Amino acid sequence: MDFELGFIGHALHDLAYGRIYFPSCWCSNRLPDAVIRQMEERHANFLCILSPYWMMRSSATPDGGLRRLIISTLDMTLIHVLEKEHEWGIAPVRPRVLLARLESFIATSREFDYLPGLRDWAARLLAVLQARWPELEPLPLYPAFRAQS
After folding, report:
1. Ramachandran region of residue 57, left (φ > 0), alpha (ψ -120 to 50) or beta?
2. 115 CB contacts (<8 Å, ≥6 apart)?
3. Taking the model in full, what pTM does it have?
4. Type and span of the H or E element at 75
5. DSSP secondary-structure letter at 60?
6. Angle between helices 12-19 and 100-112 in degrees, nearest 10
7. Region at 98 (left for phi over 0; alpha for psi -120 to 50; beta for the rest)
8. Which of 77, 121, 132, 134 is surrounded by the most beta carbons within 10 Å?
């Protein structure tokens, strides 16, 4: 069994990984938005089955869990990615670890109309990093979804 970074934590931690493209996995690529929405809906439905009061809890809002995860994953890797680019698995680290997470946070913040100040900061940081690394391409879709786009 591979529990990698497994721990007992906020239930939305696992859910948010779809939005940030499974960054700790060697085979990180993007998922289509429709697949992410399906995953989130099924995850939420499952949580409601496990706990009927799930949606009544204040910490159960998708924006809360996604916000915590995306912010916390940015700070864990920022220094290492700024210092050196390297390949890991099927995607370079900078688009996976930094650019995709910033893009995801910005989109999620817009979707839930949440943390506009932090969203503006993330957008400025993303613009600076894209100017610094103009050769970086966005994280591609997983191969199974490429023919559909």
Report:
1. beta
2. 67, 109
3. 0.76
4. helix 62-83
5. G
6. 110
7. alpha
8. 77
> Which amino acid, one-letter code, is at 24?
S
Q: Per residue in 58-77, pLDDT tens?
A: 444 555 555 665 666 566 56
Answer for the pair 66, 108: CB distance below 8 angstroms, yes or no. yes
Q: CB neighbours of 36 closer than 8 A, spacing ≥ 6? A: 18, 19
* pLDDT tens figures, 16-58: 778 878 767 788 888 998 998 898 888 877 777 766 555 545 4
User: Per the structure block, which two tokens stand in for 86?
Assistant: 């390297």
Q: How far apart are CA 102 and CA 121, in angstroms?
A: 10
CA angle, 8 as apex, 118 and 37 as ends, to 5°? 55
Q: Which of 89, 102, 93, 111 is nearest to 36 (CA)?
A: 111
